[in-house]
Amino acid sequence: MKSSDLLIIIPAYNEEGSIQSVVNNIIQNYSQYDYVIINDGSRDQTSEICHNNGYNIIDLPVNLGLAGAFQTGLLYAYQYGYEKAVQFDADGQHLPEYIAALEEEIDKGNKMVIGSRFVTEKRPNSFRMLGNTLISFAIKLTTGKTINDPTSGMRMFSKDLIQVFARNINYGPEPDTVSYLLRNGVPISEVQVRMEERQAGESYLTFSRSIKYMIHMFVSILFIQNFRERGK
After folding, report:
1. Were 157 and a residue from 142, 161, 193, 224 both cysteine, which residue would form a disulfide, CB within 3.0 to 4.6 Å?
2. Nearest to 132 by CA among 123, 141, 140
3. Do residues 70 and 166 make contact, with C-beta atoms less than 8 angstroms apart?
4. For the chain, which residues make up each domain, given as ranges?
5. How large is the C-alpha radius of gyration of the chain?
6. In the chain, which stretches have pLDDT less than 50?
7. What's the pLDDT tens digit per position in 137-155?
8. pLDDT digit string (tens) for 29-54?
9. DSSP for the chain?
10. How far apart, in whole angstroms, are the C-alpha atoms of residue 98 and residue 90?
């Protein structure tokens, strides 16, 4: 039952080692927010853990990937009339204590707010951060705007963007969409946050996948977005 105007969307794929502590923290310490878990076709005990604990969960029959799972969450937010929705990792990296700061930026008129590791903190010069740096450069080059942490998965969306993302499959929760929105005058801001290491399991982004992701985003921002139609 809807009890808040803000929804935490938690896409989860094979997160049996962390999902319970993540959701229990929200329930026990941040009960002013609603949440929904989108189980993205997990092959482990993620779904069973959620159902056994009575969590609010939507089970997808197959793995749709982050974009499909998150859109499912935004469609839920749209159908239930939420004013704001925040993308939140199931692996324990994101901290709910920062949600209020993101919400303040939405209330100021921003349509998207990114929980950034590098607003007041310096981005480390490491190979791990190379993709983040290049994507940030591509966004700056094509929009004239600075996004310090474009690969952050902690993003809050206004009611307007909830509707747009829920109804258009072409809007994925990725840096190229952030770039596209900036080019079309959508106000986006960043808030400094701290992130933890994942609590359990392994990241989907292996070294090779990280390289492919970086190249795909870089090319998409620099070239493909030029041919993207508004609202598509």
Report:
1. 161
2. 123
3. no
4. 6-227
5. 17
6. 232
7. 999 999 999 999 999 999 9
8. 999 999 999 999 999 999 999 999 99
9. ----SEEEEEEESS-TTTHHHHHHHHHHH-TTSEEEEEEES-SSSHHHHHHHTT--EEEESS--HHHHHHHHHHHHHHHTT-SEEEE--SSS-S-GGGHHHHHHHHHTT-SEEEEESSSSSPPP-SGGGHHHHHHHHHHHHHHS---S-TT-S-EEEEHHHHHHHHH-TT--SSHHHHHHHHHTT--EEEEE---PPPSSS--S--HHHHHHHHHHHHHHHHTGGGGPPTT-
10. 16
pLDDT score, position 127: 63
